Amino acid sequence: MARVRMRDVAEHAGVSVRTVSNVVSGYPHVSPATRERVQRSLDELGYRMDYLARGLRSGRTGFVALAVPFLAEPYFAELAQAVISAAARRGITVLVESTAGDPEVERRILSGGLTNVADGVLLSALTVPADDDAARAADFPLVMLGEHSVGDRFPRVGIDNVAAARTAVGHLVEQGCRRIVALGRNGSENGRQRTEGYRQALSAAQIRRVNWLVVPVEDWTREHGRAAVRELLDGSGPLPDGIFAFNDALAVGALAALDESGVRVPDDVAVVGIDDIQESAYTHPPLTSIAPDLDVIAERALSLLAEQEGAAGVAPREEATPYRLVVRASSLRARPGSPT
Amino acid sequence: MARVRMRDVAEHAGVSVRTVSNVVSGYPHVSPATRERVQRSLDELGYRMDYLARGLRSGRTGFVALAVPFLAEPYFAELAQAVISAAARRGITVLVESTAGDPEVERRILSGGLTNVADGVLLSALTVPADDDAARAADFPLVMLGEHSVGDRFPRVGIDNVAAARTAVGHLVEQGCRRIVALGRNGSENGRQRTEGYRQALSAAQIRRVNWLVVPVEDWTREHGRAAVRELLDGSGPLPDGIFAFNDALAVGALAALDESGVRVPDDVAVVGIDDIQESAYTHPPLTSIAPDLDVIAERALSLLAEQEGAAGVAPREEATPYRLVVRASSLRARPGSPT
DNA sequence: GCCCGCCCTTGCATCGTTGCAAAGGATCAC
DNA sequence: GTGATCCTTTGCAACGATGCAAGGGCGGGC
After folding, report:
1. How far is the CA of A3 from the C1' of D20 (A)?
2. Smallest Cα–Cα separation from A229: which of A266, A184, A274?
3. Which residues in chain A touch residue B252, judged by CB atoms under 8 angstroms apart?
4. Which of B282, B284, B287, B297 to mutate to test the interface with A (most CBs of A within 10 A)?
5. How near does any CA of chain A get to the CA of B33, in Å?
6. Nearest nucleotide to A55 by CA–C1' distance?
């Protein structure tokens, strides 16, 4: 059974192809009688739009590309789900690309690898330096998700990482922690910002510098979190009484390492993460975390894409989206400094 | 800066458009000199293929659609990652659709909602009945992932659910469990099959029927797993000494509920799940699970799609993919029946 | 020396839809 | 009654690539 084209529908309804197109696309000036007749033919023949042809002619495809480092990482999976849902509400289909954190792949995307098939690109990059050549050359609707901004040409949507980190560490301080380890430094901009927030919180609390410690990890995964904390526990230094993990995956790994070693959480060590992935409500003990509002991020990002499509010169900007501190048992100590 | 078309490249290189196309698509009969010259122009102008135009003309787009119920569920996220990686190796881009388990959406996909934009569809359905009308009418390359088969018209790729469930429950029996609860029955075909495996294992072990118990849940999520086990613990019936969760998310919820109530795992209750999501290596205690080989599933599925594109009448078949039992602490009891 | 055949290159039509702009018809006001 | 205006409908060309098939050029065989 061959494909049904507008031409077939037009013949069946006894009108021109253009009129069928008008009906399909909701053009207002079509007489009710004609609209009715065409609609019947559409239904009867089971017409389905060829999005490729429409995209080729009109220049708009109805696709948005979403590029994330690893879809299997819970945070990115949840982010992708939010984007897909938000896009569906707007009649947009999402193309998902996985960059594997490969700078080469990220660069390829920035240089337009997805341009003509997608109306816009949402990029959650790990590595691309802000002043990359490819970034400069990009001339299509692009919104950065999360941390990286690419130069000052494109808008960015995400939480304020410095403030979020400060909130998380500040919470640990409130809970009585005085020797807090930051877990997760790496080369990323994101890592720098969360490190900065950590520093600001410790400064504000007048924690002595000798008690500052930033532990680097390669990837923000459970595995690296566990390995880093194992090493920390095996080491000769004094044990921390708080761990601020740069994301929840690291925190989950940290909790596993602490559990193995019989360290009590939160009594011996309080733990807090960032992302509030679903998993975090089910760890042992449940993990305190910073919860970004993924739906807001997805909505804003799509709106910003739409804006870029419309006007030529839209002022790039940073959209700081809301977040909440979700307090769970991993950081909740018996001795409350003040009532919640 | 406008888009660079083949025409622009052709003019720049002083050849015809067709020759540029020949170079780009790797047509063999092009003189080295010409090829060289065209290639230089391609690079210099930064030509990038318009996939829409190519797709419109050639009928193939290089896209494959993947539809899963919820991308935020770890199992589906990991599956999607595997599919995206496998597709990337073949130069295919993946369109991800989230059905939210809505039968209407699944039906729409089966009735060809993605056809002309994707060369084939991978559908991981929850609800569509095997003999649905839409399923019968589908006339495009389609492969079912996971459990549901749609009539006998399309191939299915996934583990043998009955056998996998039997293996999981058999393992609990080996560990000495005698009153094993199955957690997760629902209306799905998948649920029926795992229930059947549970029954077979208990029968084989000659467990008395009074000790069989299948607990229904609405969704296979952490939350429903926790709620169901809480209810089980609050109830008046005798406690089980083993829990077979139909997937790892349920198992994670079950572990959380057991932890809350101070039930010791695996001493009081041993727990096993299916899927072996990454999270399962980090639960308290680490979760024993059945690990399907997602890479194999993704590879097979894409191969089957390609086959369907080629020949008209490919015999539909069920591809049972390999799986392993990954034993972790949640089921490993002190008293070993036999050495591993 | 001539013809045949292979290799390389090319032009044209086409995929299915929408932008553009104008034609035909009906309605309404004066 | 007549002109103007608006509403409907239409035809044509074009988006950028590839399928098809033929044309030109060159080398080799006899």
Report:
1. 22
2. A184
3. 279, 282
4. B282
5. 28
6. C17
Token pair recorded at residue A18: 């253009």
Place of tokens 């900007």: A317
Asked if the bond preceding A266 is cis, omega within 30° of 0, the reply is yes
Radius of gyration of the CA atoms of chain B, in A:
25
Q: What is the pLDDT of residues A311-333, one digit of tens each?
A: 655 666 788 999 999 999 999 98
**pLDDT tens string A244-279:** 999 999 999 999 999 999 999 999 999 999 999 999
**Residue B256 near residue B282 (C-beta atoms within 8 A):** no
The per-residue pLDDT for range B174-222, each reduced to its tens digit, is: 999 999 999 998 888 889 999 999 999 999 999 999 999 999 999 999 9
Which amino acid belongs to residue A82? Answer: A
Q: Which of A48, A222, A278 sits opposite B222 (nearest CB)?
A: A278
The reported pLDDT for the residue numbered B6 is 95
Determine the angle formed by the axes of helices B248-260 and B222-234, rounding to 10 degrees.
Answer: 40
Both structure tokens of A130: 């802000």
| Bridge pairing between strands B323-326 and B288-292 | antiparallel
> What does the DSSP assignment read for B50-76?
-HHHHHHHHS--SEEEEEES-TTSHHH
Q: Which domains does chain B have, with CATH numbers?
A: 6-49 (1.10.260.40), 63-159+294-322 (3.40.50.2300), 161-292+325-331 (3.40.50.2300)
Q: Which residues in chain A have their CB less than 8 angstroms from residue B4's CB?
A: none
Residue B264 is given by DSSP the state -
What distances in angstroms separate CA A103 from CA A216, B248, B256, one per listed residue?
Answer: 20, 33, 39
